[in-house]
Write a structure and sequence with these properties.
With 216 residues, this protein is mainly alpha-helical. The chain contains 11 helices and no strands.
Length: 216
């Protein structure tokens, strides 16, 4: 079912039928629940905000302080993964340009995760980057200045919807290596694809967010 949807979508964009010779997805289930995803959205949104004000030290420190208050208020510290503490609490001088690049790409992961809990309507084909509007999105992230209210406003998409996107991005990644001429014709942004795959694979994995493997 998922592969048929993937092949149809890619064929329509190519205006030519294509068969993707890859193993089918197992009958996986979504391993992350609403709380897992909403916590991850909160962390990634905070990381994205820090990346956006990278060149303004005063703003960086102010946002960091606000983040600490928010995480303490909502009791989210216990969900920290190893890199979250580095990105959210390290003094600016201890973070590298490589860290900034990683942090700025959290926008693409946010696009997947907010879609997964129905905060955004669609997940477009991965051709263009997505920039988070911190003010607009921030008001939606904490509509009542409270994490529990935010979580209650979210609704997890169906297994079929999520696995269809997992399969699509998995197949696109395969095309990049196996059929580069087809991949080029699709005009897929390789960086967007990689970041989205990480978020999608995390949803169906038991692994931590930073431990997801994209080798397959």
């Amino acid at each position: 079912m998922y592969r048929e949807t993937t092949q149809k979508l890619i064929s329509e964009r190519l205006n030519n039928d294509i068969v993707i010779d890859l193993p089918l997805l197992d009958d996986e289930c979504i391993k992350k629940n609403i709380q897992n995803i909403c916590v991850r959205i909160s962390f990634n949104f905070a990381i994205s905000a820090l990346a956006e004000c990278w060149n303004d030290v005063a703003s960086f420190e102010q946002i960091q302080n606000n983040i600490k208050k928010r995480l303490l208020q909502d009791s989210l510290y216990k969900y920290y993964e190893h890199k979250d503490k580095i990105y959210l609490e390290s003094p600016k001088k201890e973070l590298s340009l490589s860290d900034r690049i990683v942090m700025s790409w959290e926008d693409e992961n946010l696009r997947v995760l907010t879609w997964a809990v129905s905060l955004t309507r669609s997940l477009p084909f991965p051709t263009c980057t997505w920039k988070v509007n911190q003010i607009t999105f921030g008001s939606r992230l904490y509509p009542a200045n409270n994490f529990d209210v935010f979580m209650a406003s979210c609704k997890l998409r169906t297994k079929e919807e999520i696995l269809s996107q997992v399969d699509l991005h998995y197949c696109l990644d395969w095309l990049k290596l196996a059929k580069p001429e087809v991949f080029k014709e699709l005009k897929v942004n390789s960086d967007v694809l990689m970041e989205r795959r990480r978020a999608l694979e995390w949803l169906v994995s038991e692994e931590g967010y930073y431990d997801v493997s994209l080798d397959t």
